[in-house]
Amino acid sequence: MDEPRTIPPRLRDRLYAAVTLALAVLLLPAALVRHPSRARELACSWALGMRFPAEDLTGLTDGAKQAFTAARTAALWRHGQLIGLTSGYRDPLIQQQMFDAEVRRSGSPALARMLVLPPSESCHVKGIALDVRPHEGARWLEEHGARYDLFRIYDNEWWHFEYRPEYGGRPPRRRPTPAWATQPRCDGGRHEPQRACTNNSLDLRDPCRRPR
Question: Quick count: other Cβ atoms within 10 Å of Cβ 211?
Fold first, then answer.
């Protein structure tokens, strides 16, 4: 994983992780009473809900939600790592608005596709794409996500993962950007191969630019 390795872990993120793990430990007895067979998952969910109160898993497919829940439960209990969700499912109208805004900002649909895809091609709309944070959580997911069928897809988007059980647990070859639309579409079709236009003024590694 290139980008997160170049960004030093922030002390604040480490403190959040330690506090969230401590909360999960404190909540474990209550989780055992509520659901003994899923106590660690439940305690983790409660603790992460306090750390990331605004996140919303609604709209994700059942498989994507279960895989993400299992992955971040393991990340917290086994390695003390937090994985939060910044964006999951998106309504097609919202996705179209995001794409249109990026077209206006970048100046062309081809450049826009380097960061945002139209609704018909976006796996956020299909409920299988997850944008995660922080950097250390994304790094953990890239290293361990294959066992949960969660894979990083693009070189320029360290935060973007997709639930892809059809890959059989083997990480796919990453694409440079979403504009390199050579992978199967979420609807089962295929994009026409399209290389992204180059623009030296566009920093594709900017962590403030979210994947689509």
Answer: 26
